[in-house]
């Protein structure tokens, strides 16, 4: 009996340790964020979620070609165009697109209040580009867009305790195009002379290859990045 009693106590202690370990491994930021919009197994649906932004940074993103490539045959070509590129918010914590769109309304209201700056789930970049492509040359434009990144804490409240707490935290990092900060974007025009086969196929001309130089012209050079606020020092509740 004494041995059985000791075995039972040992089992209870082991069981308590296992439950503790399960609680420690339960913390899932994706599930927590999703529960702000819909029922999640083991969590249900949060009754209130609020975002507390801590830091906003502005930086220049990677360059990519915008618009089509211009082929100048028989004379110089000046191309002027308005380029619009659509961009969507990126969240470091993976959730579905539908959930992300809903969460972005919460993010947007807090970011605009805290930093006085526009934030939306879906945005676009519009830029006027005008440049000259020399005769028998190929040219195209690239934009390295102005971007913004916000870090902060989503505070998620439940009507009943979840794993011992009414309140849980998730720490997303959000990144999006910044339509209001074009001074942090770089716009360039790149041109090069056609080779003989390009001149023949594109311009139906087999004359001498153009001596026009290869050029890399910066129309607008980005300012150095900047930031507002400070990084969070808190750790997730788990």
Polypeptide structure, described:
The chain is α+β, with helices and mostly antiparallel strands. The chain is 24% helix and 43% strand. It has 4 helices and 12 strands. Strands 1, 4, 7, 8, 9 and 12 form a 6-stranded antiparallel sheet that branches. A 4-stranded antiparallel sheet has the order 2-6-10-11, with no helix packed on it. The longest helix is centred in the first third of the chain and has 25 residues, at 2-26. It is elongated and about 80 Å long. Mean pLDDT is 79; it is low at 1-25.
Features:
12 strands; 4-stranded antiparallel β-sheet; 4 helices; 6-stranded antiparallel β-sheet; 43% strand; 238 residues; alpha+beta; disordered N terminus
Overall form = elongated
Roughly what is the average pLDDT, rounded to an integer?
79
Point out poorly predicted stretches: 1-25
Content of β-strand = 35-45%
Q: How are helices and strands ordered from N to C?
A: HHEEEEHEEEEEEHEE
Please bin the fraction of helical residues.
Answer: 10-25%
Q: What profile does the largest beta sheet have?
A: 6 strands, antiparallel
Task: Give the strand tally.
Answer: 12
Distance between the termini: 39 Å
Helix tally? 4
Q: Please give the radius of gyration in angstroms.
A: 28 Å
Brief synopsis:
By secondary structure, this protein is α+β, with helices and mostly antiparallel strands. It has helices spanning 2-26, 29-34, 97-115, 196-203, and strands at residues 48-60, 64-72, 77-88, 90-91, 122-133, 137-144, 146-162, 165-170, 173-177, 186-193, 215-220, 226-229.
């Amino acid at each position: 009996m004494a041995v059985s009693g000791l075995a039972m106590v040992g089992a209870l202690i082991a069981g308590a340790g296992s439950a503790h370990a399960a609680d420690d491994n339960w913390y899932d930021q994706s599930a927590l964020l999703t529960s702000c919009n819909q029922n999640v197994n083991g969590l249900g649906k949060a009754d209130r979620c609020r975002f507390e932004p801590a830091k906003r940074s502005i930086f220049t993103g990677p360059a990519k070609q915008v618009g089509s490539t211009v082929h100048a045959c028989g004379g110089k070509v000046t191309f002027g165009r308005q380029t619009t590129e659509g961009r969507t918010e990126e969240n470091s914590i993976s959730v579905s697109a539908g959930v992300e769109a809903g969460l972005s309304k919460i993010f947007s209201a807090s970011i605009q209040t805290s930093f006085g700056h526009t934030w939306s789930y879906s945005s676009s970049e519009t830029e006027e580009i005008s440049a000259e492509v020399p005769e028998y040359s190929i040219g195209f434009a690239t934009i390295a867009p102005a971007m913004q990144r916000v870090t902060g804490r989503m505070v998620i409240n439940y009507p009943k305790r979840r794993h011992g707490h009414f309140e849980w935290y998730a720490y997303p990092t959000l990144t999006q195009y910044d339509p209001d900060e074009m001074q942090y974007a770089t716009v360039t025009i790149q041109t090069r002379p056609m080779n003989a086969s390009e001149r023949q196929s594109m311009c139906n001309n087999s004359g001498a290859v153009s001596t026009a130089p290869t050029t890399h012209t910066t129309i607008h050079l980005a300012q150095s990045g900047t930031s507002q606020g400070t990084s969070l020092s808190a750790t997730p509740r788990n």
